[in-house]
Write a structure and sequence with these properties.
The chain is 39% helix and 15% strand. An 8-stranded mixed beta sheet has the order 4-11-10-9-8-5-6-7, with helices on both faces. Helix 1 packs across helix 3, helix 2 packs across helix 3 and helix 5 crosses helix 11. By secondary structure, it is α/β, with parallel strands linked by helices. The longest helix is centred in the C-terminal third of the chain and has 27 residues. The chain folds into 3 domains: 63 residues, Winged helix-like DNA-binding domain superfamily/Winged helix DNA-binding domain (Arc Repressor Mutant, subunit A, Orthogonal Bundle), CATH 1.10.10.10; 110 residues, Aspartate Aminotransferase, domain 1, CATH 3.90.1150.10; 223 residues, Type I PLP-dependent aspartate aminotransferase-like (Major domain) (Aspartate Aminotransferase, domain 2), CATH 3.40.640.10.
Length: 439
């Protein structure tokens, strides 16, 4: 798509600011092809060096991406807040947002009573000792090294910091496809280039990882369980195969995004013990609640030192009130029982939907986690059919780079009686023979 918009500005910073404003107000849509450097230079009477600098600034900020001979395009999802979070229409059941079931989250009341009410001051230890002790015990039980631990404000905060510790704009990062949409957005905002890696029911495919590394990927982001959106999870054979695929590239950074943690519905398996540069990020958002913006990160000493050093210069630390609250929840036996109940309930709801779809001849993926991924020939048709039946589901497009169309259904609050209704709607909308599996 070639834009009719005319770039303006007499300097590199002015051109970059003008393009950013045009993206923000909708005059430049995602995917729009920008004119060549030479064409802009001739139009504005500037040197190609000045225009190249403007384009480089826009790439570094994630607003545009370079595609070699195909030129420069506006990023598919530039890092702007406008329109980032579509609202579920009134009257529809929300099966789109990926939230946990509030009824399956631990109560915060008792935990608040156990949080220290003393003030925390500059110069004190930035990480809560009891939180670190409990986190180390959990990670060690999963055979994840715990010599170096850090605390960040959620999984994406941790992943962003780890990426910035090692990579620079223009570097390639191998990512699961289909994968977590916010990871794609984050890479764009950092000026990093995603290199798609296909997945199956056991996660990233080793041959695809080898191909991505051959294409120059300097880092890879993997989901060991509850992969979003497909629900894939590592088994031991896949861990061995991925370790083999990564072995010839010891300097490639490996990030494991264990976002669902104890409610994933599968054990935590890891590649971390055999890597030089690595980080395992374990968030509490799905298990304890999205508003508890906290993620424990284990990693190699250099990575953790770098990310904590950068944290020190910015936020400084995660609030000790928040850290103490998570520690209190983890220390409470009632929380463990609640998480076990949540894991069983999510498994039952996933299985009910996958089974109902299979009974109607439809293929679906959702072995772990809170989502079921359903391949369809036309995403818009599926989303509209579900909306007409009273359900909001998510089109797969934000989760896809090269993989085929699908829709994502969050099962966290989906009662068994509704699984048949969802399957009926999709079964009526599409002929089973036309459905395809993820690439």
């Amino acid at each position: 798509m070639q834009s009719q918009y005319k770039l303006r500005g007499s300097s590199a910073s002015a051109i970059a600011a003008d393009v950013e404003e045009a993206i923000r107000d909708g005059r430049l849509a995602p995917g729009t092809q920008l004119p060549t450097v030479r064409a802009v230079a001739a139009e504005l009477g500037l040197s190609p060096t000045t225009v190249s600098a403007a384009y480089r600034t826009l790439r570094n900020r994630g607003f545009v991406s370079a595609h070699g001979r195909r030129g420069t395009q506006v990023s598919r999802r530039p890092p702007l807040t406008a329109g980032a979070f579509p609202v579920v229409p009134p009257g529809l059941r929300d099966l789109a947002y990926g939230n946990p079931d509030p009824a399956l989250l631990p109560s915060l009341g008792a935990a608040f009573k156990r949080v220290s009410r003393g003030p925390r001051l500059y110069g004190e230890a930035k990480n809560h000792p009891e939180l670190l002790r409990l986190a180390a015990a959990q990670l060690a039980a999963d055979k994840i090294p715990t010599d170096s631990l850090a605390v960040f404000g959620g999984a994406l905060d941790a992943i962003e910091r780890v990426l910035q510790a090692w990579l620079r704009p223009g570097d390639r990062v191998a990512v699961e496809d289909p994968g977590y949409a916010s990871i794609f957005d984050l890479l764009g905002a950092l000026g990093l280039v995603p290199e798609p890696v296909g997945v199956d029911e056991c996660g990233a495919r080793p041959k695809e990882v080898e191909r991505a590394l051959g294409a120059g990927a300097r880092a890879i982001i993997l989901t060991p369980r509850a992969q979003n959106p497909t629900g894939a999870a590592f088994d031991r054979e896949r861990v061995r195969a991925l370790a083999g695929a990564l072995a010839p590239s010891p300097d490639v950074l490996v990030i494991e995004d264990d976002h669902a943690g104890p409610v994933a519905g599968a054990p935590a398996l890891t590649l971390s013990a055999v890597r030089t540069r690595w980080a395992v990020v374990r968030s509490v958002s799905k298990s304890l609640g999205p508003d508890l913006r906290l993620a424990i990160t284990a990693g190699d000493p250099t990575t953790i030192a770098r990310v904590e050093g950068r944290q020190h210069l910015g936020a400084g630390w995660v609030s000790h009130v928040l850290q103490g609250l998570v520690a209190a929840l983890w220390a409470d036996p009632a929380t463990e029982k609640k998480l076990e109940t949540a894991q069983r309930t999510y498994a039952r709801r996933r299985d009910a939907l996958v089974r109902a779809l299979a009974e109607r001849g439809l293929t679906a993926y959702g072995a772990t986690g809170m989502n079921v991924w359903i391949p369809v020939p036309e995403e818009a048709r599926a989303v509209n059919a579900m909306a007409a039946a009273g359900f909001a589901v998510r089109a797969g497009e934000p989760h896809r780079l090269r993989s085929p169309p699908a829709v994502r259904v969050t099962i966290a609050t989906l009662r068994s009686k509704d699984a048949g209704r969802v399957a009926d709607v999709l079964g009526a909308a599409f002929a089973p023979a036309s459905l395809t599996a993820p690439a």
